[in-house]
Write a structure and sequence with these properties.
With 152 residues, the chain is mainly alpha-helical. Helices cover 71% and strands 0% of the residues.
Length: 152
């Protein structure tokens, strides 16, 4: 009888934990920001909080996702992908803000505070996830087997 395979975390475990904790942090922020903004500013506050969480959350979470994806690429390709994603995020964010300036269905204060909150909370949650993840630093240990199970 053999034991279960080892489930040591791989080298990408910190980035996976960062994404997991970041999504959890964003979900908590959305609930709190929507409740608070809706209470204070009504329906425009609700829209401001939702749009702000989307802008801030996607901006930060996409960075961790792109770094996780590009870890499997060559260093040169990884740099190109990460730089390209950063330029793309800036471009999309500027367009989104430019388009949103024309509308007044949302509360701009709720949007701004939620974007700032998303940046701080999601980045903090991702950092917490990376710091809490234990990754082996040496060579992998050999798998252990139960030798007595095969003998009668």
């Amino acid at each position: 009888m053999t034991s279960l395979p080892r489930t040591d975390p791989g080298p990408d475990a910190p980035l996976r934990a960062a994404l997991r904790y970041g999504v959890i942090g964003l979900a908590v922020l959305v609930v709190l920001a929507v409740a608070l903004a809706t209470t204070i500013a009504g329906l425009p506050g609700l829209w401001g909080a939702l749009i702000g969480a989307a802008i801030g959350g996607v901006f930060i979470l996409s960075t961790a996702a792109v770094v996780l994806y590009s870890a499997k690429l060559t260093p040169t390709m990884a740099q190109i992908v990460i730089l390209g994603s950063w330029v793309g995020k800036m471009f999309v964010t500027l367009i989104a803000v430019g388009v949103l300036r024309r509308f007044d269905f949302f509360d701009p204060v709720a949007l701004f505070l939620t974007v700032v909150g998303a940046l701080l909370i999601v980045l903090g949650a991702e950092t917490w996830g990376v710091l809490r993840t234990k990754v082996p630093s040496g060579p992998p240990l050999p798998e252990t087997r139960d030798e007595s199970a095969g003998q009668a």
